[in-house]
Amino acid sequence: MPFGLLKYGLLPRYPVRRQLPADRDLKPAYDVVIIGAGGHGLATAYYLARDWGITDVCVLDKGYLAGGNTARNTAIIRSNYLTPEGVRFYDESVRLFRTFSNDLGYNILYSERGHLTLAHTDAALRTMRWRAEVNKHMGVDSELVFLDDIARLCPPLNLSDDVRYPILGALYHAPGAIARHDAVAWAYAREAANRGVEIHQRTEVTGIRQSDGRVTGVETTRGPVAAGRVVQAVAGSSSLLAAMAGFRLPIRTIPLQACVSQPLKPFLDPIVVSGSLHVYVSQTPRGELVMGGTTDPYALYGTRSTLAFKETLMADLLELFPFLSEAKLLRQWAGMTDMTPDFAPVMGLTPLEDYFIDAGWGTWGFKATPVCGKRMAETVARGEVPDILEPFRLSRFRDFVQLGEKGAAAVGH
Fold first, then answer.
1. Of residues 405 and 364, which shows the higher confidence score?
2. Are residues 223 and 268 in the same domain?
3. Reported confidence tier of residue 411, pLDDT bands at 50, 70, 90
């Protein structure tokens, strides 16, 4: 038995370390206000404090810490994207994830499993080959594999020809991983708070204060707060908040559903994704299968679950793993995804001076948490966009310089 557990078990009273300081009143002004206490907002606050010494920072959220999409995703981490800009960006995030637990002193249960993106058609095989070559060119470990290798990497997968969509090959991405999503958010929150950042939950932003084209603060349900700079990182509510700031976003908010099974004996090591079947699945260390599918076909600011999603997903999943027919679902949920036309995020400057945006994450926001926080903090501190974020600027839609990442956006389309 670990000594710490024995000590806590035998002592009648023992100190419990608070994850966050006790609640306090809002100050009338801060150097930086971050709207959204999800993974991205908390990571930005942490890196502002750690890397740039900016600690007069306030993080606001109308709900509770990490209660939005950070708590409603499937925690897959990968960098096998299609465009060089996307591969470079997500590869930096993977590198940050690998050292995350040691860097922040918080175990996020990071587990590299490998990531198989299945190809069921000749066109899909061409795309996988294209992605593999781009990945290799950028120094990312990805390769096109065929049935013999797939059988070795994932023995339980149904490779029969007697199915609706037979598997022809796959893109294998060895660094593909999963992690504990809420642990990522709590680690950033704790370490940011230890450096002086204030986190205020249940504090809704109701307006953006501005003067002469520059942001001056925010209106909240607890009163006005002045700010030198403001960052919005609110996922599915991005368009609503941008409208408060006076500009429009090319974003459509739609629900994305997922579910988890009862715990099963471990059998699935890699993450398996099928864009044709619109299904992805991984197995957690506790044995649960975490499963998701395509986004819902309609715009909605809501997180309701539907029977149609569950029925469709189960039918497609059973084509890949027929022996799961008797497995039971444990729970089902939905998040609000902010989808852009080119399936790439929007980060950096906005038409409102000193107002910064972190949006357009669609189905790939969790895996970008560390790199987004680190690079958004750099943007806020320096007042200019680093090269790695430049391709994701908001103005690309006005200038018709879109990225075209749809071919690597897994099943979120």
1. 364
2. no
3. low
- Per-residue pLDDT reduced to its tens digit, 214-257: 999 999 999 999 999 999 999 999 999 999 999 999 999 999 99
Of 339, 354, 385, the position where a domain reaches its end is: 339
Together in a domain, 171 and 263? yes
Tally of structural domains, the chain: 2
- Claim: this prediction has a pTM higher than 0.90: yes
- 370 against 19, higher pLDDT: 370
The token duo for 62 is 């109308």
The answer on 330 and 198 residing in a single domain is no
Parent domain of 197? 26-73+182-250+342-408
